[in-house]
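Sync notes, pocket subgroup
Present: LS, DG
LS reminded everyone that the earlier model was apo-only. Rerun requested with adenosine monophosphate included. Inputs:
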Amino acid sequence: MAQWSQGVLSLNFEEMDLNPRVLAGVKASGYTKPTPIQEQAIPVALKGRDVLALSQTGTGKTAGFMLPILQRLITGSLGSARALIVAPTRELAEQIRQSAADLGKNTKIRSVAIYGGVSKGPQVKALNRGAEIVVGCPGRLLDHVSDGSIDLSRVEVLVLDEADTMCDMGFLPDIRRILAHLPKQRQTLFFAATMPDEIRVLSNDILDDPTTVQIGIIAPANTVSHALYPVTDALKKRLLLHMLQQTATGRVLIFTRTKYRARVLARDLEKAKYRVAALQSNLSQNRRLQAITGFRDGKYDILVATDLASRGIHVSEISHVINFDMPNTVDAYIHRIGRTGRVERSGEAFTFALPEDEVLVRKIEAVLGARIERRCLPNFDYGNFTPDVWDSRDHPKPQRKDPRHRDDEQAWTTAHRRQRTSARPSSKSTQSRPDTQRNPNNPRRRRFRGRSPASAVNPDR
Ligand code: AMP
């Protein structure tokens, strides 16, 4: 199991002076010890201080702000919006609301998620019933403000979650408009994975003498191992099908560049008898929820999504993220692969890279602080294309060996296990390694088609 880079954790939830009813929610959620971001952020937030948290996705940041909110709301009057959490996507808003419900299940605190694409009616009803925690996306929140269906004048805590993503999505003006409706006297908790200039300015404007907490470098969770598969666009689909057949996977999240490509790829995978759903922004909110819920509950093994989905999917057992198309930016890569390897689970991120993706690959490697291993899929017919899996500048080209050579296999299997156990991003490898499946005795060499995802996830753990 992956260890936190910060070393031994010293503070337990029990030592955080949480109200017993809040602590009961922590236990019911199965959290035994705080993650580093929780360990750092919760005690500060419990004191009522502002927090600037630089935390990558998948580190447990939601509970990092939700527990102090529940602790605060459990005392004082109920029946009005006292905590406002602003998040970039509907999916993320729903996940945060669910977390409020789970962690607060032994309290009387109610929550509502507010986002566009669905009717306002039920949201208005929940607001009228007096939800204390409001989780909202900026646009719909402002709609409710201008309709007069939400009163933000009693908000005591504001959380901006994935503030950098909101900035990327052009929500900054909306956020400033929302801020104008909030009391000046409040606690603000600010979460971002990266700090572009605009976000730094916003945080300076709205935080009052904040405590900054930062977990490691701004890089993907270190429970993810990465690999690049050099390929051509024409070969991608066939490569994916071979990869899925050969790889022991659990839940697989595949990213494409466009909605069209997501739709077509999902259809092709369905034809190949995979249990698959597509998630892209042309779908109605109901269809999007069905796709995510079906993926989370195991109805689908594969979700094919555009970047929209990378922001809001919180499914704990995603074993593989496959970038069928390279993302546009380093941030997008980090967000995408943040969908796997969440908290203490380990995951693998495979990226299909075209020769023209090389520049971005270098940038990603700079953030990771390590070279991403180049692999070619064994027994796959690349035709005229020769995948460049060697980095001649860094490494001498090793002699080719018969891939079935036993010593070679054992050396690789050991190295691969070590890599997974240490759960670091791909090491600075000196050799290209075959995939797990090359060793016919490897227990991971299984097909997942038609099997239940639970049994397919990491059979070696
Ligand atoms: P987040 O980064 O908040 O999206 O959390 C990622 C995942 O970690 C979610 O599935 C949480 O339920 C889970 N999680 C959060 N805190 C803990 C914890 N202390 N121990 C184990 N899992 C956790």
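DG: Residues 3-214 form a domain with the Rossmann fold fold (CATH 3.40.50.300).
LS: The first strand starts at residue 51 and ends at 54.
Action: DG to write up.
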